[in-house]
């Protein structure tokens, strides 16, 4: 079964850091473009970052450039999102998705509050 | 990073047909087509259609996607109570190299 499972969310203070993970099963993650998408409470979906197959190119929404880093670990079939310098407006459920957007994880919640 | 345009809400009666629209430009929908997602409250998004209107396995044939130029459409026939949800469209913008999303359409089944 093709599946994505996120982990690593939590509550942090402004300026803090977290590392989100997305474990893939049923397919080889490195063969696909993969993305992170977030959803703030009561809001719509917002694309955050995408990594091309093989990790050669990475793309980010302007608001996270320089603070977020997307990466993959092919040996573990795992994608990660390192999020630094967290702001209140980063509070959201973070989803990983295969980049045809056909497969989604269940999400992990990040709360940034003092 | 401009998004795609969706009507905020659509209301239709039980067993009727709803057509949801999503407007982009030549660099996103006009070039790559759109993905359609369904999201029920408190649940993750679920793909209804992706890449050239392919329907994932397990998705009802009542859901069908199409495209005309830079506007994508999702048609839902024989509306059921469980179709009441938020529907999002998304597309890869080949010039901006970003995924763009619509603001979502809340479908109400009367």
State the gist of this model:
With 114 residues, chain A is mainly β. Chain A is built from no helices and 10 strands. Chain A is globular, with a radius of gyration of 13 Å.
What's the overall average pLDDT of chain B, rounded? Answer: 94
Contiguous runs where pLDDT drops below 50 for at least 5 residues of chain A: none
Count of DSSP helices of chain A?
A: 0
Number of strands of chain B: 9
Rg of chain B from C-alpha positions?
Answer: 13 Å
- Spatial strand sequence of the major β-sheet of chain A: 2-10-9-4-5-6
**Strand proportion of chain A:** over 45%
Helix content of chain A: under 10%
* Largest sheet: number of strands, sense, barrel closure of chain A: 6 strands, mixed
Helix amount of chain B: under 10%
Shape of chain A: globular
Report Rg of chain A.
13 Å
Q: Which range does the strand content of chain B fall in?
A: 35-45%
Largest interface, C-beta closer than 8 angstroms, per-chain residues: A-B, 21 and 24 residues
List low-confidence stretches of chain B: none
Order of helices and strands of chain A: EEEEEEEEEE
Q: What is the average per-residue confidence, as pLDDT of chain A, rounded to a whole number?
A: 96
Structural class by sheet pairing and helices of chain B: mainly beta
Annotation, overall tally of beta strands of chain A: 10
**Helix segment count of chain B?**
1
Quaternary structure type: heterodimer
